[in-house]
Amino acid sequence: MTEAVLLVGGKGTRLRPLTLHTPKPMVPAAGVPFLAHQLARARAAGVEHVVLATSYLAEVFEPYFGDGSAHGLRLTYVTEREPLGTGGAIRGAADALDARPGDGVLVFNGDILTGLDIRGLLRRHERARADVTLHLTRVTDPRAFGLVPTDPAGRVLAFTEKPRRPEEIVTDQINAGCYVFRREVIDTIPAGRPVSVERETFPGLLAAGALLHGVVDASYWLDLGRPASFVQASADLVRGIVRSPAVPGEPGEHLVLPGAHVEPGARLGGGTVVGAGARVGAGAEVEGSVVLDGARIEEGARVRASMVGAGARVGPRTVLDGAVIGDRADIGADNELRDGARVWCGSAIPDAAIRFSAA
Questions:
Q1: Are 282 and 263 in contact (CB under 8 A)?
Q2: Residue 160: partners with Cβ closer than 8 Å, 6 or more residues away
Q3: How far is 179 from 212, CA to CA, in rounded Å?
Q4: Helix H segments across the chain?
Q5: β-strands 221-223, 112-114: how paired?
Q6: Are strands 32-33 and 28-29 parallel, antiparallel or unpaired?
Q7: Residue 325 DSSP class
Q8: What CA–CA distance (Å, rounded) separates 176 from 355?
Q9: A Pfam family matched by this chain, by name (predicted)?
Q10: DSSP one-letter string for 222-255
């Protein structure tokens, strides 16, 4: 049996206000909680049992996913009372695993969208007889990530977490947030205290002579930590640029969920999602955006690359471009919010009060 640990305990502070009342993995992308896409892809790769390592708003997950049977999986929930970092979360999930020594356990982060061949990663791990296998990807600017150089055979040589000096940038290969651990290696992670796999576990294993194997993969990869990335991920899922069995519809330029209403003359494109019970008025244009359940986009509004929270209202002729509108916020007519502007949940902006706002 193939098992996985899915790390879903983060607070998602960079996505606020959308994560004030919703954990980041439960924020909808392409019509369903983002976590649903990860679980569906894991199931398609042959994973049967997933341990969800939760912490922030942990009570939200189980009412939605239950025991996992509706998704073809067995789900177990493990909750940290105090955040213990990536390594601490993995170690805390260990007792819920059925894997035996020598078995591979898939571990992945709850905020990464990827087209990675998961079965292929597991095969590469077995073939290399590695203690840990890491999914690596290449990026143009690696400064915000953990660098992982490898030798020609794929053996990991070092770890540099978020390099600060030019001489530290020795590769464009970065840690892509998906791993395969030998079951017994997880037990070497200290229990009951914060541990970072990136800064402590992996460098420690390397220093002790363990075999860490890197698999460089060129498929789609996106870190969903920031609103612009989350919106892009949702749009790419809708358009089929990256495929997920959990998308509730065929690939296309927009996805309108049951119960939503789009007035004649409104235009949707760029992978836009209109949530259940939401309304888009006549003459409105919504491009590459996420409009959550019950939101209203009034007549003549223009919304691009933005997230509009559940129950929020965007007034007539208002322009959103790269904005995040919290749940139940009310944006009056003839406003203009651009370039990272954020409106908190429940806030109200009068008509024509803002012509431009940036974070």
A1: yes
A2: 146, 147, 168, 170
A3: 10
A4: 34-44, 61-65, 85-93, 118-128, 183-186, 202-207, 227-239
A5: antiparallel
A6: antiparallel
A7: E
A8: 39
A9: NTP_transferase
A10: EE--SHHHHHHHHHHHHHTSS--TT-SS-SSSEE
Q: How far is CA 78 from CA 47, 69, 168, 277, in A?
A: 18, 18, 37, 33
- Give me the residue label for tokens 């860490």: 212
Nearest CA to 242 out of 111, 110, 112, 114 is that of 114
Measured in whole angstroms, how far is the alpha carbon of residue 226 from the centre of its chain? 10
What are 255's strand-pairing partners?
273
Statement: the pTM of the whole predicted model exceeds 0.85? yes
Tokens encoding 235: 């749009």
The CA-CA-CA angle for residues 94, 97, 103, to 5°, reads 100
Tokens of 131: 């203690």
Q: CA-to-CA distance for 247 and 234, rounded, in angstroms? A: 10
Q: Which residue has the tokens 């509009």?
A: 308
Residue 34 identity (one-letter amino acid): F
Q: Low-confidence residues of the chain, pLDDT below 70?
A: 1, 142, 162-168, 356-359
pLDDT in the model for residue 81:
85
C-alpha separations of 215 from 105, 189, 209, 309 in Å: 16, 23, 19, 38
DSSP 37: H
CA 320 – CA 312 distance, rounded (Å):
13
Side-by-side strand order, sheet with 319-321: 267-269, 285-287, 302-304, 319-321, 336-338
Q: Tens digit of pLDDT for each residue in 150-204?
A: 899 999 998 877 666 666 677 788 889 899 999 999 999 998 899 998 889 999 9
Residue 98, helix vs strand vs coil = coil
Let me know how long the chain is.
Answer: 359
